[in-house]
Here is the input.
Amino acid sequence: MASKGRFGLAAAGGAGAVMVLAAGCTGAGGGKGELAGDKSAAITISPANGAAAVKPDGTIEVKASSGTLENVSVQGKGATIGGQLSGDRKTWRSNRTLTPGTSYTVTAQGRGGGKTSTVTSTFSTLKPAKTLSIADVTPNLPGEKVGVGMPFIVRFNRPVTDKAAVEKALQVTPEKPVEGAWRWVGSDQVIYRTKTYWQPHQKVLLNANLAGVNAGGGVYGAKDVQETMNIGDEQITTGDISDHHMTVRRNGRKLRTIPFSAGNGQTREFTTTSGIHLLMEKGNPVTMVSPGRKEGDPGYYKTVVNHAVRISNSGEYTHSAPWSVGSQGSDNVSHGCLNLSPANARWYYDIMQRGDVIKLTGSSRELEWDNGWGMWQLPWNKWKKGSALTGADAGTGATASPGTGTDAGATPGN
Here is the structure.
């Protein structure tokens, strides 16, 4: 991708090469050279030609002691390295970290005494014993469209010591801007949530510019990663547990009102949670098992249900429950799930997007913010406090959240 620096100097040359200016050149050099026709003029490049084990978080610097710099390019595998030219055109500095264990060649052209000269420096960066890489990004399904509440969930391959350095390298760019921030939920996992829901029908780009970032403890970022999140329709469900009905709207238009039967409330685990949930995943069928009980214990159950949509990690789903159709819309008799008729359960299953919002009210139990994808339960000011950055840096760039996968906790149902 072409980029522009302070003086509108266009990037070119493809991956690993950035041309700062365009100019013809003659002559050659080694890490330090003189401008033709002017013996007192010289270009120096740091790191010097032949340097090895250069720290990836270092800076490439090119200087002209007299005359001016006309062109600087950096070539090497991995991250594309750009730079910035000083106002007097005598100094150029790289603007990002370097890929570990990589050979780079810097080519600098200068002009003095009416002639041009070229100097090159080839060096290699340190190959660290341990590197930091992204193990998983959610959402990550090819072609998937997600709901307006969907976070970016990033999990690393190892614990991060310098969270601020790593977080600063994570940049989120939506087509329709909205304020957002990262929150660390462990030493190896960070979540990006927005202040308000995403606007629908847009792409959101995550650029993880990790190559060469010093993550602390001798660990450097291995490579850059780019992911795209596709926001689909705004699908928001609102329901009152005490009224036994929920209404589904798409882009503000009412689609359907669905009667349900929620948790009977006899115990905390059988109480459906109030709060802002996100639709996390779906399965058909799903086996529901009583939490904390084994076969033979009082209250033990193991039930297979169809068209199940997960809304928390404490085992709450919407799902088909033909056995409770008579109670749906009038009474709460389930073990915590929202029991729907077979037709309504299948309809909801078919239209769901991960990250769709379902906001429930009317029960005595609040959804915990770290229960599945319950991050919208945290007020914005509290959410931002989980960032490793402070001041103006916080909220500039925030994943799978706690219990992202199918290994979430017990699944009360039926």
User: Anything to note?
Assistant: Residues 32-124 form a domain with the Immunoglobulin-like fold (CATH 2.60.40.3780). The radius of gyration is 28 Å. The chain has two domains: 32-124, 128-414.
